Amino acid sequence: MARQDKKTYDLSEAEQRDLFNLIQQGKALPEKYRFILFEDKREVELVWNGKTRDVCTTVLPFQTLEHIDEPRKETKTQGDLFDSRGRQTKGWSNKLIWGDNKLILSSLKAGPLRQQIEDAGGLKLIYIDPPFDVGADFSMDIEIGGETFHKEPNLLEQIAYRDTWGKGADSFIAMLYERLILMRDLMAADASIYVHCDWRVSTWIRSVLDEVFGVDRHLNELRWRRQPVRGAKATSNQYARNSDTIHFYTKGESWIWNGAYKPYDQKFIDTKFRPDETGRLFRDCDLGDYSADSIANFEAVGKIYITSSGKKRLKRFLDEEKGESLGDLWTDVAEVNSMAVERLDYPTQKPEKLIERIIRASTNEGDLVADFFVGSGTTAAVAEKLGRKWIASDLGKFGVHTTRKRLIGVQRELKAAEKDFRAFEVLNLGRYERQAYLNIGGRLTEVQRAAALSAKEREFRDLILRAYKASPLGAEGAAQDGFFHGARNGRLVVIGPINLPVGRLFVEEVITECRKRGASRVDILAFEFEMGLFPAVLEEARSKGIDLSPKYIPAEVFDKRAVDKGQVVFHDISFVEASPRYDKKNKLAVSIELSDFSVYYTQGAAEAAIAALKEGKSDVICEQGQLYKISKSKEGIVNRERLTKHWTDWVDYWAVDFDYLQRKEIIKVPVGTGIGGVASLEGFEPPQGELKLPEFEERWTGGYIFENEWQSFRTRQSRDLELTTAMHTYDRPGRYTVAVKVIDIFGNDTMTLVPVNVG
Predict the structure, then answer these.
(1) Which of 269, 475, 574, 588 sits most deeply, having the most CB atoms within 10 A of its CB?
(2) Contact criterion met (CB below 8 Å) for 218 and 193
(3) pTM here?
(4) How does pLDDT run across 61-96, given as a tens digit for each residue?
(5) Measured in Å, how far apart are the chain's first and last C-alpha atoms?
(6) Cα 709–529–477 angle (5° rounding)?
């Protein structure tokens, strides 16, 4: 653009007064004034629709769902890190976090875990592989009954992030911009970040990274060739797209760098290296500007080669070489193909060799590595194998479940090799996200606060009813019934509390209210139900003539687009049956047998699937807790074959805590916050080189942490599942509460409590 004439920038008297008032009030200057006043400081800047420099400051407590350190067998002692039971008692525990990474990053930055991060040496490396475009989804191919079932993603997984791609490129950029700022603020001064992307978004991501980190912090634009050009790619009408881009940035002017090398290929070795008198392979190089003293030292250790012309050259032995120095084009790492041992059938899974190269180059052993779009868990798995600490998070529940299994497998692998490993925790923002939804800010009187909270709760109930496709009870109905919130298909609907589990007292009240009004059918919608509530309470309701149907409210209800599109699915509860098996010889020993697991899922309409099915083709559907293979003959005859022939077909993973009530769940919350500990720390920015966090206090949530003491799960390589645990021996006689957790093939959790008496 041609430079405008100076007169174009002259300010009128009105503009001058406006500018003076803005400066007096300490407000940001409009772009027009900024460019006029600081003409000599102009820089290229990325601008998009709705751009704001506001960054999330919400701080939520992390709910600990599970603690895992693979204690199936006697644990190798690692100094004083673990106790005799195999529980890690001190030091950093790795973190696997399920939830929206914007809230996770904000809570890590200004929450109590920040101090743990700093105590662990600070965050040294971030690798992220964010979703590229709307074409990426979280669907899964699940093997069951000799067939493949295509698990459709729930909406929260499908759109990946609530703002991503919903309005095009600007919403994607806005999503990434805010998260990169939060990541930058978490990084140590000598940390690096690698951002993986493809041709669709590479330019945008580069521009965002330049703005967040600075153009001078961009070290490399790496190119990774995923695969050779072959098949349809080789015959297309354009250059084949067979590579990805990885942008490499640093936070500060100095960073960790260990070099990056790849092994010499055999052709290079054969042509460049020769054996010396001992048979040791070497190549000779120019001595360059080495000093006379250095050359003398080389001679003393036999590293000088004298040519036929008498010239001295330096010997470089093959067994001392690190390999070929890597450039910015990587062609030696293959993608995860269908036959790869590490393949987990997870979309966009990256090869371990690729991540290993990055971690080795930019961290040292014991450093903390993070991936906030972890997917199938490759970054965490490689970090663990290389002796690094790690934080991993993902929005997709199935991704977190996949990563959990993968990391348990890594723990087993390291244990078998007698190598050290660390425990990891599965964390979730869970109920605290819901509490944040009801959080009332501002300076309000008690009356105003009560009114605002009441309005929020009404808004919440209306949202749930719309998502459930239920009609709210009208003013007359509300006045008449009071207790119930809506109706659907001839059934009353009642919504449980947003931040508390539905317990027996609540269900009994529902039963009482139904009998008062002569109602016989009711749905109870809740985020959580008290453990052990079902199926006994359903039988109790049935004995009183009431058909009671409890349903889980999915997290997608907070996504307005999901509600508007009618894509929110409410799942029926699952049932777990497990029994103790006592050792006849040892009165302190007991095992747990998983004896039944029932689900009631339905995914899509069978009629629609049959209608869409082409002649001679087949498909797999989920209906009323069963998987069916439907096929249509050339004559149009439809056959249905049930694949889930046994309840065990639904179980992907189960685990046991033999003393569930032993460890209370304690959260740290900012002092002065409400019962949920939800806070918004506006303007929080720790000074460079000095960490000053808000003051925190400990609170018991009323729950307990699941200490994973035994588990069995299916993998791609092994579909076997153990249904009885190893014997567990208690220290003393008494009554204990055993928690049994089952995760189905869709990644949904169900837990039950089993009382045992030993001694």
Answers:
(1) 574
(2) no
(3) 0.80
(4) 888 889 997 654 434 444 454 454 555 667 899 999
(5) 86
(6) 175
Contact 338, 230 (CB under 8 A): no
pLDDT tier at 732 (50, 70, 90 boundaries)? very high
Per-residue model confidence (pLDDT) at position 135: 38
pLDDT attached to residue 140: 53
Q: Which of 664, 746, 613 has its CA nearest to residue 142?
A: 746
Report d(CA 350, CA 198) in Å as an integer: 13
Give tens-digit pLDDT for 459-473.
888 888 988 989 998
Does the structure show a pLDDT above 60 at 120? Answer: yes
pLDDT exceeds cutoff 70 at 2:
no
Tokens encoding 687: 């000074």
Taking 80 as the threshold, does the pLDDT of residue 232 lie above it?
Answer: no
| Placement of tokens 């009187």 in the chain | 445
Task: Look at the block and give the residue holding tokens 């692998």.
Answer: 413
Burial class (CB in 10 A: 0-12, 13-18, 19+), 52: exposed
For residues 425, 429, 430, 436, the Cα torsion angle rounded to the nearest 10 degrees is 160
Cα-Cα-Cα-Cα dihedral sign, residues 74, 77, 81, 84: positive
Among candidates 413, 411, 376, which has minimal Cα distance to 392?
376
Domains and CATH numbers, the chain: 6-41 (no CATH), 58-123+131-224+240-261+325-434 (3.40.50.150), 264-322 (no CATH), 439-497+500-572 (no CATH), 575-663+705-758 (no CATH)
Distance of CA 282 to the CA centre of its chain: 47
pLDDT band for position 419 (50/70/90)?
Answer: confident
Cα–Cα–Cα angle for 220, 226, 229, rounded to 5 degrees: 120
Q: What is the pLDDT of residue 409?
A: 92
Q: Whole-angstrom Cα distance, residue 526 to residue 554?
A: 9
User: Is the N-terminal amide bond of 153 cis, ω within 30° of 0?
Assistant: no
- The pLDDT, as a whole number, for residue 156 is 41
Determine how many CB atoms are found less than 10 A away from the CB of residue 747.
Answer: 21
List residues bridging with 713 in a β-sheet.
Answer: 653
Pairing of strands 486-488, 471-472: antiparallel
